[in-house]
Amino acid sequence: MRKQQTVIINGNKNYVSRWKILAVVLMIAVIVINVYYRVKIKIINDEFAEQINEYAKLNQTTIFSIDGIYMYSSAGALDNIDVNPVWNLNLYQFTDIAMYINNRSDEELTYENSIRSMYISDVKFNNVKLGEQSLHYKNVNDFGKSIYSEYSVEENNLEELNKNKIDDKLEYIILNDGIIDYSQPIIYTDASTPISLEYMNNAIQTNEIISDTTQEVVYDGSLLRRAGVNLQDLAGSISFNITIINNLKQEFVATVNLNIPLEDSVTGKTIYDGKYVYKINAENLIKFYRIK
After folding, report:
1. CA 3, chain centre distance (Å)
2. Count of domains forming the chain
3. Lowest-confidence range among 92-101, 173-182, 214-223?
4. Which one of 17, 35, 58 terminates a domain?
C-alpha cells in the first residue's frame, strides 16, 4: 500500500514565515515614519524658534505705542413720529474713542518714527447682546456728538451717515504739514493728531414709546434708563488692528481690544446719568510690534 504524503505542514510553515516577514516590514515602516515625524517636528520647532528670535530682534526697542485712550459713551434716539406729547423712538448707544500715539519723536523725527501709511482693519464686536454694531471714522471736532445727531429720518441720508463706516479697512491720508480736514481720515506723519473713531450700536430698541410728559425727554444716556435697557445687554468689547508703515517701509501692528465703557462699579457713575467718560494714560499702554 502506498504511503500518504502530507504537505499541509510545509504550507503552514510558509504561511507563518510570510506573517513574520510582514510584521518585520510593518515594524520597520513604523520606525521610519516615527523617525520622519520626529525630524519634521524638530525642523518645525527650530524654524519657529528662529522666527521668535528674529521677531525679538525686530522689537528690541518700542518705536510706536498708544499711551493715551479717551472714551466718551452716551446714547440718543431717532424720532419716528414728531408729535408730542408722545415720542416714538429708535434708541442707539455710541462711544467716541480717541487714541494718542507716542512715536518717541520728542527730540527728533526720523524715517523710523514717522508714519508713511496707516490703516485700521479686522474689526470685531464681542458679546454685545442688543443692537447692530458698527465702527466709524470720527471727525474729532464732533467728538462727544453722535454721528446720528445729523441724521434725518425724513431725508433718509443714510449714505452720508455711513460714508466713514469701516467695513473692511480704513486707510488714512498722511500729511506732513498744513491744515487737516478732519471730515476725512487724515493723520500727521509725526503722529501728533489722535486716532478718532466712533463705536455705534444702533436699533437697541425700535419704536420705543415714551408718553410721560412730566419729564423732559433728553437725548442722551438717560434715555436708556427711561426705556428700561439693561446695561449688561450693551456691555461687550470691540477689537481691531492698527497697522503703521514707517518711512523705512518697516511694518508695525497693534491689536486694540477695548471694553465698551458704560459704568464704574467703584464710583457708581453710569451712562444712565447722561454720559460716561473713561480715560487712561500709561506708557506703552498698547504696543505696536514690528512684523517686517
Report:
1. 91
2. 2
3. 214-223
4. 58
Are 2 and 118 part of one and the same domain? no
Same domain, 170 and 217: yes
Q: In terms of residue numbers, what domain contains 15?
A: 1-58
Gap between the Cα atoms of 166 and 220, Å rounded: 24
Query: Which tens digit of pLDDT belongs to each residue from 249-265?
Result: 999 999 999 999 999 98
Split at pLDDT 50, 70, 90, the class of 43 is low
Q: Give rounded-to-5 percent helix, strand, coil for the chain.
A: 25, 40, 35
Are residues 130 and 186 both part of a single domain?
Answer: yes
Residues 159, 277 share a domain: yes
Q: Which residue reads 527730540 in cell numbers?
A: 107
Query: 116 is written with which cell numbers?
Result: 508713511
Instruction: Render the burial of 170-205: b for 16+ CB within 10 Å, e for the rest.
Output: bebebbeeeeeebeebebebbbebbbbbbbbbbebb
| pLDDT band at 34; cut points 50, 70, 90 | confident
Residue that is last in its domain, among 32, 58, 84:
58
Q: How far apart are CA 75 and CA 265, in angstroms?
A: 20
Of 140, 139, 263, 128, the closest CA to residue 202 belongs to 128
**C-alpha dist (Å) from residue 179 to 12, 118, 196, 265:** 96, 19, 17, 42
